Amino acid sequence: MSKTIIIAWREFKLTVFRKVFILGVLGIPVLIVGVMILAGYMMVQHEEPPLVGTIAIVDSTGEVVKAAKIEFDAERIRRDQQLQLKQMQEQSLDAMKGGVASPGNIGSMPQMPTRGDVDITVESIDASNEQLVSELNDRVRVGDFIAAVIITPETISTAKIGDENSGDVRSTFDLSVGEELDSDHVGLIERRIGAAVVRVRAERAGYDPDVAIAMLKYPTAKTTRTLKDGEDASESKVVRKLKQMIPLVFMMLIWMGTMVSSQHLMMSTIEEKSNRVMEVLLSAVSPLQLMTGKILGHGGVGLLIVGIYSSVAIAGLIASSFFHLIDPMDLVYLAVFYFMAYFMIASIMAAVGSAVSDIREANTLVTPIMMILMIPLMLWMPIIQDPNGTIATAFSFIPPAIPFAMILRLAAEEAVPLWQIPVSIIWGYFCVFAMIWLAAKIFRVGVLMYGKPPSPLQLIKWIRYS
Fold first, then answer.
1. Does residue 22 come out as left (phi exceeding 0), alpha (psi in the -120 to 50 range) or beta?
2. Domain residue spans in the chain?
3. Quick one: which of 41, 266, 353, 395 has the fewest CB in 10 Å?
4. Which of 261, 446, 272 is nearest to 346 (CA)?
5. Under a CB-based contact definition with an 8 Å cutoff, are residues 317 and 324 in contact?
6. Taking Cα atoms as reference points, which of 199, 207, 208, 214 lies closest to residue 156?
7. What is the pTM of this model?
8. CA 378 to CA 398: how far, in whole Å?
9. Among 18-27, 84-93, 313-322, 436-445, which stretch is predicted with the lowest mean pLDDT?
């Protein structure tokens, strides 16, 4: 056991106590944080250019032109923008406080980017003059108009979709904008023209336009989730979105820690085998002790990297448990399945690294295993939407995908059948010991083999006869 610990410490020390590793591991988080701070500062300081110019509208009825002049009123736009910014700040505050908003704290929230002034003139184009209509795009191109809109009678029709007498009901209009127009300004024009069309439809139906538009706005739900302990917890739309992302965060923490450290393990094994250092080590320790020590040492490297890179994420997950975003028991499952995933992948990487002498040969052997591991990563959304479905349940018992599929299911909102949790853990760790045992047999033969890389069939023979 002491020799195994010595090997583990050697692997950890040779990997961690290097300037390149320290600069890489510590430099990247510092760089990421710096870029995020700089990006946030630039967003806050960003001020959109003013939107000034004329919008040409082709409208045979003249009703949309009249409504557009109301919708493009500068004071109306400014009021709507202020309301939108307030709603965005409230949503951000909801996310920060677990879904419980405090209006008194909204003023302390970071301010959104400053909106530029809007000064739009609406000009009506005679729909009967085909030459003027055909020249619209050219006039937009040279800058006479910042945008041109073509409204057809069907666009403002009040006929119900599906009505046998409604004919071809269109809910679209043609919009032409210049190449230099900001995308946010394009969105503003689209929304305002759409609001003008709704205003016309309301007037035709005999409703007050402002009342009709207000009636069409969905009310904001103040959702309260009743918990098992008898307490209630407020829940906003932002919080529900966060809950959907938490399973992915759990899985990515496991994925990052296992893959980074396992790749280090395989590379160091290949390097030591190629340099004949492995032969010197095997003169002092057994192949099983050497492989176990390397796995434990690089496991420590993986924990260090995950601890540095994901400290903020882990702190957020722990804090989230106090706001009922996650079950505190999920943090325990995170640790349980992290070690399961690491020892599964590390044993595979150690076996492959011992069997080959080149990284390209290693990739050939690892690719089939990686394809199985990629399935939970690609299907994370269907799995959390239906955690008790056939696919999710099946991959919860197929190594080495067990820890990745199970952590997705356990972090999802739908409860997993209670019996599946201990069964998957017991079965998973049984597979861990089996994979380490098989990897040790391959490692024992492979570390002293040189030349042509073995085929999968030869690896099976090594297991049988070693």
1. alpha
2. 49-220, 234-465
3. 41
4. 261
5. no
6. 199
7. 0.63
8. 16
9. 313-322
